[in-house]
Amino acid sequence: MTRKTLLIIALLAATVFAQKKIKVQNLFSSYTLTSSRAHYKKELQEKAKELLTNKNLSTKEKISILDEISLMFFRPPGIYNFIRKSLINFQSNPPEFNNHLLEALKALYPNSSKLLIKKIARETNDISTFVYSACVLMQYPKKFELALVDSLIQTKFPTSNNLLLKLFFKEINSKQNSIKKELPQIFSFPFQKGKTIIFSLQRRNRSFQGLTIIRKPDGKFVRDSSGKIIAVPQLALSAANLPGYLKNGNTPQGIFSIVGFYITQKESIGPTPIILTRIPFGKSPEIFFHGQNKYKTWNIKDYELLIPQSLKNYPPIYEAFYAGKLGRRLLVMHGSTDDLSFYKGKKYFPLTPTRGCLSTIEIWNEHGYVIKSDQARLANAFFETCQPEGFLIVLNIDDQKKPVTLDELLPFIREAEKSLLQHK
């Protein structure tokens, strides 16, 4: 993003921040019309047919279709056989294609082809394909076959310093303890003076919805007119529920930079303003750290200055940094105009999974107008801070098998606000 683009965003932000309100009744998307829904389903069927029958498709085209049908949990006849046959010939495929095949298999048919996946894990020499196959084998975030995966890492890559492999090995062999006792310090930590701070608190199993709250530059959390803290349900889940340092994995834990907001032209996200966040390495350190970086090039020491003392030695807080180093990009906070019928029966319904972004609930009627928009609530709460720059903190607070609620966070929020008030 150029300085000119940033200036435009800043000027636009200033205008909307002054207005402080998205008029929800005016939100409209033709993508949600009944006719558009029918057209999309037909188009998706045609794409799947093309994948199954057109032998002249490029690898890039195959990956694009695989990713789309996986995101929608669409299982047309023949797609399982296509994935399986393609993986049987994995040695002849580019590693990137194998990885997307494995991702699709985990999303669509997570309990199938175990012997084939074991064969791939044992025989592949590509570290990324090994990690993807291991995730399918273990049914990540579960840890089935962990002993086998650990053994294969030791025998196949005994001296490797590969960053992806090191992150994977460390994560699957670590215990995910609750960090709730650290929340008061996290909620009261300054990060940078005068900045907006957004907290997205999640469970380790991202199939359970998380919750997002916003702290204003004065240290108080954004509240509604009745004095209740505005807390918005949010999903940090990828379709295949893969680790955050993989290309289309879950939203990584850690610290992201907030640089403003924008409205996308992408129909499946819709017209509600997106909170624009940047992952480390996605832009220059100057942009990420809002000009308060000590080093001109990316250096973990700048990132460490943003970490509360109690989390300095907590590996998950560094996941975003290393995910960015491995190439993850363009992870933002957005709504959704996707057809919710694809996700009926999922424990997170009516939230929708993404390819790594943080998504909120949006429900649209057949005439194209929004019925409910948590993204508008989140954006309006963001505008209430009157500061479009800051940081997003994404953390798994524990491994409970239920959605994150405001009631369980309130004691920690109150303690943090009390601490900040005492220090003033």
Written overview of the protein:
With 424 residues, this protein is an alpha+beta fold. It has two domains: 3-32 and 177-423, L,D-transpeptidase catalytic domain-like (Beta Barrel); 43-172. The protein has 15 helices and ten strands. The protein has helices spanning 3-19, 34-53, 59-71, 79-88, 95-108, 114-123, 127-138, 146-156, 163-172, 183-188, 285-288, 300-304, 319-325, 374-384, 406-423; strands at residues 196-203, 210-215, 232-234, 254-262, 274-278, 333-334, 358-359, 362-364, 370-373, 390-398. A six-stranded mixed β-sheet has the order 3-2-1-10-4-5. Strands 6-7 form a two-stranded parallel sheet. It starts with a helix and ends with a helix. The model is unreliable at 1-11 (pLDDT under 50).
Short descriptors:
2 domains, single chain, 10 strands, 12% strand, globular, 424 residues, disordered N terminus, alpha+beta
Whole-angstrom Rg? 22 Å
Mean pLDDT: 94
CATH superfamily of the largest domain: L,D-transpeptidase catalytic domain-like
Count of helical regions: 15
Largest sheet: 6 strands, mixed
What's the helical proportion of residues? 25-40%
* End-to-end CA span: 37 Å
CATH topology of the largest domain: L,D-transpeptidase catalytic domain-like
Describe the protein's topology.
Blueprint: H1 3-19, H2 34-53, H3 59-71, H4 79-88, H5 95-108, H6 114-123, H7 127-138, H8 146-156, H9 163-172, H10 183-188, E1 196-203, E2 210-215, E3 232-234, E4 254-262, E5 274-278, H11 285-288, H12 300-304, H13 319-325, E6 333-334, E7 358-359, E8 362-364, E9 370-373, H14 374-384, E10 390-398, H15 406-423
Parallel strand pairs: 1-10, 6-7
Antiparallel strand pairs: 1-2, 2-3, 4-5, 4-10, 8-9
Helix pairs in contact: 2-3, 3-5, 4-5, 5-7, 6-7
